[in-house]
Amino acid sequence: MTTSRAEAAYQRAAAAFKNPTLDLLHGRYAPFVVAALSLIFTPERPTVAISDAHVEVGDVAEELRAAGYDEDDRGLPAGTGREICRYWVRVGWLVPQIDDGVEVYRLSAQAVGALEIVGRSGAGRAKVSRSRVRTLLESVEQLSQHAETDPERRIARLRAERDAIDAEIERLGRGEVEPLEDDRLLEEAENVLHLSRELPADFARVAESINAMQRDVVSELRRDVRPAGEVLREYLHRGQHVMEATPEGRAFAGALKLIGDPEHIDRLTDQLGTLLALPFARHLRVEQRRELEAIAKRVEQGVQEVLTAQRRASHVITAQVRTHDPARDREVDDLLRNVMSGLQTWMQDARGNAAVEPLRSLPTANVGHLRQSLSDPRPPSAPAPLRRDEEAEFLDADTRAWGGPYYRELEEYVAGLGGERFDLASAFEGVAEDARRPVDLLGLLEIAHRNGMAEDEGISVVEARRPDGTVRRFAFGAVSARTASPHTDTPEEPTA
User: Fold this and answer.
1) Quick check: is 157 in a domain?
2) What per-residue confidence (pLDDT) applies to 489?
3) Of 342, 351, 452, 455, which alpha carbon lies 20 to 30 A from 365's?
4) Domain residues for 458?
């Protein structure tokens, strides 16, 4: 059956009125909802702690009831602030979320749009102004330029723009400046405010589209029974490219190139401050001045809200993918279904005050006997002692030459030095040529430390020679030591 134009128009209108935005404005308590939300949520306070919101909504309702507004045609909703906020969450005007570990409310995109509609209506009907028409014409012109595929036409348009800019520069260079009248500047400012009022709802819609995509992905993942490797590749890719998964996200990604740079936000703030300092700004109403001043902050908050939603969605999707276990998920789903089925069966015969005995502990496995004795984990005997240097076997002389210090030779050399003490640097210079390697310097230093080393004044410099003939110079604080160890026991030497 063919649908008539009237039926199609009616169906579109009926579908539009199912939107929470129009539902909010069409509801019985719409004035109270708009008033309470506009008081609690401001550009400086985009999110409110849930406990604070319950108290503030309750205070607003009580204040209006005391003033007699509960008796007019629309009246006020019944219940406490907590009950009112819970209802607003169910109908989609408030969105609960976690912010730095605190449960908060934020306005949904539909609620933001409804507040903007009311704000525009309260500020008066939009005028058909020169600036508004010019904005439309410039948008159409820009669209036409981007859609143009003929290079010659694009070049001609760019040259015309360049000629116009050059003419303007020459005119200003001659000092010919024509200041605009205050009425024209006020008209331009009102157009800027008109355009900025739509941004918060746009940002909120982008964030909500990302959150909805996240929920869809997690739901699909839980139902996915494909191999784990295939699931991981697909969903990790979706988590990393979450911004490209929705039309709103792709549009925002393009806009982020214009407003995402902090320098752009700072420049916008400076420009708005300069405008508010001009004489024409005195003719703006107080709320218009406040709204114009808050544009940059609104843009910054909107960008932050979207980026936070993106990071949260990527984190949730990645965490779900890494812990994805189809078998375990099916077991949990079966368990939950069994619990719900048992609850429904119990509810058929249970009375209102019937008590349920809680499960205080999980059932334990019935194990017949556990092993009570274990073998001794200690080894049967101590390991064999390390062999001394003279017992070590080397493949060849070159291998030994590149090995550790010659401890035995160095100890005999130190014991044969005259006097009670010796200087480390001087002693190293007198060591045999094949025992004057860098590692032998460390060995001699170890022997000096064992014999009782003391620091002297000055810096000592020595030369050490590797087996391949390369020379290295070392500098260290001068030290001296006794020629004999104060200990009677000779420590075991490490194996080479």
Assistant:
1) no
2) 46
3) 342
4) 389-482
